[in-house]
Write a structure and sequence with these properties.
The complex is a heterodimer of chains A (123) and B (107). Chain A has 123 residues and is mostly beta strands. In chain B, the strands form two sheets. In chain B, strands 2, 4, 5, 6, 8, 9 and 10 form a seven-stranded mixed beta sheet that branches. A three-stranded antiparallel beta sheet of chain B has the order 1-3-7, with no helix packed on it. Classes of the chains: A mainly beta (123), B mainly beta (107). At the A-B interface, β5 of A face β4, β5, β8 and β9 of B.
Chain lengths: 123, 107
């Protein structure tokens, strides 16, 4: 079955960087966008970014410009989300999720989701 | 940026009752890009409805989505115990996805 498995929880100090992995299985990795969504404690969902696993191109809002890098390794069917200059308000559970339609389209019908990775930023 | 406003913030109902959740967009949204997600307590979100009215795989027919333009609705015809959760709508425009703030359905 289609599955996304994320790396484990991280604790980082303010100013540091974190890199979270998302390993896909059960489908053709290069055929679907992967999205990243985060959820701060007790808060709602925030869409962060998306990456095209085929070409490697990514798309994310202005608020993450300069701090967010998405990469992928097609040999291991893994995407990586790296967030730098961490602040306390980056403390959240970070999810990867597959788009519901094949490339080149993207619809945001996110299914399935990874299990989530808790990133805690604390001095 | 298009803002999605969900109402009510919290819905207090009993099992077997009908739930009606609203999602209003600040500008017109393409129905192709409107989705609903459910997040049960302590769990990962999961896709319920896509393209405004299509049920995702395995979602029972007590869930239905409707609407167009700026007003969308998720209806749960008869609440089951596992439906007490937080529901989010989501849309895409201008190369960005945004979520509503969520509606909590509680007993």
């Amino acid at each position: 079955q289609v599955q996304l498995v994320q790396s484990g929880a991280e604790v980082k100090k303010p100013g540091a960087s974190v890199k979270v992995s998302c390993k896909a299985s059960g489908y053709t990795f290069t055929s679907y966008y992967i999205h990243w969504v985060r959820q701060a404690p007790g808060q709602g969902l925030e869409w962060m970014a998306m990456i095209n696993p085929s070409g490697g191109g990514s798309n994310f809002p202005q608020k993450f410009q300069g701090r967010l890098t998405l990469t992928r390794d097609t040999s291991t069917s893994t995407v990586y989300m790296e967030l730098s200059s961490l602040r306390s308000d980056d403390t959240a559970v970070y999810y990867c999720a597959r788009d519901g339609v094949e490339l080149p389209a993207a619809r945001g019908w996110l299914d399935p989701w990874g299990q989530g990775t808790l990133v805690t930023v604390s001095s | 940026e298009i803002v999605l406003t969900q109402s009510p913030g919290t819905l207090s109902l009993s099992p077997g009752e009908r739930a009606t959740l609203s999602c209003r967009a600040s500008q017109s949204v393409s129905s192709n890009y409107l989705a609903w997600f459910r997040q049960k307590p302590g769990q990962t979100p999961s896709l319920l409805i896509y393209a405004a009215s299509s049920r995702a795989t395995g979602i029972p027919d007590r869930f239905s989505g409707s609407g167009s333009g700026t007003d969308f609705t998720l209806t749960i015809s008869r609440l089951e115990p596992e439906d007490f959760a937080v529901y989010y709508c989501q849309q895409f425009a201008n190369s960005r996805w945004t979520f509503g703030q969520g509606t909590r359905v509680e007993i």
